[in-house]
């Protein structure tokens, strides 16, 4: 199970981080008005790439798992906010609910990985 968690987190973060860099515009709607959208999207993309790489390396895996959980926890209010928006990021109503549920699951996954500090692939 541990290597599955490692792969899920690594792929999730690396793909997400790269998408933040090459296609930042779709992520702008998740950034509140008045905030520097491009800078926030780029910074979050860089953080996601760092976490994705970190989780693959045994020496940094635990801290990367914790960073993943914290980042997902920080993103959780954005997903809750999106659920109540008049113009949600995803136009399908159930998508915001699904995102919140997935967010809770992946937070737990990151914490689980962090608690297993001696895991190696």
TrEMBL record:
Q: Does the keyword Membrane apply?
A: yes
Which key words are in the record?
A: Membrane, Transmembrane, Transmembrane helix
Membrane-spanning regions, if any? Answer: 5-23, 35-56, 63-81, 93-114
Q: Report the PANTHER family cross-referenced here.
A: DOXX FAMILY MEMBRANE PROTEIN (PTHR36974:SF1), MEMBRANE PROTEIN-RELATED (PTHR36974)
- The name this protein goes by in its record: DoxX family membrane protein
